[in-house]
Structures are given as C-alpha cells and as structure tokens.
C-alpha cells in the first residue's frame, strides 16, 4: 500500500469518525477505532485507553453537543481536524490530531480545546494592523 493510499484511507476513517459521532451511531463510531486506541487531552491531562472506554466516554458525554468539520489536513501517518462544536448557544473550536494503525483504524487522538481570549494589552500598539471578527 502506498503512502498516498494510506493517507486517503486514514482521512476517510477520520471523516467517518466525526460523522458517526455527530450521528450518535456508536457502533459505527467504534468501527473506526483500533482496539487499543489512546485518547489524550493535554489541557486537562486526561487519557482514555481502549476502544470500549473511549466509546463510553463519548456516548455518555453530557449535554446535547453538535459538531461541524471546518478543515481536514492529511499526510502520511496522520490527520488533523479543526472542528466547530456547539452546545446550546455556546460555540467552541477543537483541533484534533489522529494517527492510524496498520489496519487503517484510528490508533491515537490528541484533542486541544483552545479558549477564546481578548488580545493582550501588550499588543495595543498593533491594533491598527488587525481586524476583529
């Protein structure tokens, strides 16, 4: 199998991962994962190891959240996604880094949930160069 084929396969698996998460199709979601998948959240220093535990973590996650994929970037051995999550009126962004195993399943996921913040006062002199959106 070529690097291009592996890259395309992992990208499709990650896209299916997000689609099945949004659909709450937990059996299809589980099918995208390696048995020994490891999910890491560096900001909270949490780790979930194993397919069953990770599926349960998502299935039982509180609130009625929804997601939309903003961007997917794939290269040999890894895929990165930028997502927009909504929970009621609240909107959050997430960056997720995926690696795959030899079977094309997701082996690792590392999630970053950046919090929005106001520009620091030390950059006030640069306001004329920026546009707020």
UniProtKB/TrEMBL annotation:
Residue ranges annotated for the SnoaL-like domain, each copy included: 14-107
InterPro entries: NTF2-like_dom_sf (IPR032710), SnoaL-like (IPR037401)
Classification via Gene3D superfamilies: 3.10.450.50
Classification via Pfam families: SnoaL_2
Name of the protein described by the UniProt record: Nuclear transport factor 2 family protein
Organism: Streptomyces sp. SID12501
Lineage: Bacteria, Bacillati, Actinomycetota, Actinomycetes, Kitasatosporales
């Amino acid at each position: 199998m070529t690097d291009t084929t592996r890259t395309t396969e992992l990208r499709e698996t990650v896209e299916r991962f997000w689609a099945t998460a949004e659909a709450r199709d937990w059996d299809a979601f589980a099918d995208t994962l390696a048995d020994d998948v490891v999910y890491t959240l560096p900001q909270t220093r949490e780790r979930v190891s194993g397919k069953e535990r990770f599926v349960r973590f998502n299935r039982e996650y509180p609130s009625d959240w929804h997601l939309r994929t903003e961007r997917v970037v794939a290269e040999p051995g890894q895929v990165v996604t930028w997502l927009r999550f909504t929970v009621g009126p609240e909107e959050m962004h997430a960056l997720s880094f995926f690696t795959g195993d030899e079977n094309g399943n997701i082996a690792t996921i590392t999630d970053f949930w950046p919090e929005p913040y106001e520009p620091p006062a030390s950059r006030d002199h640069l306001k004329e160069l920026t546009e707020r959106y």
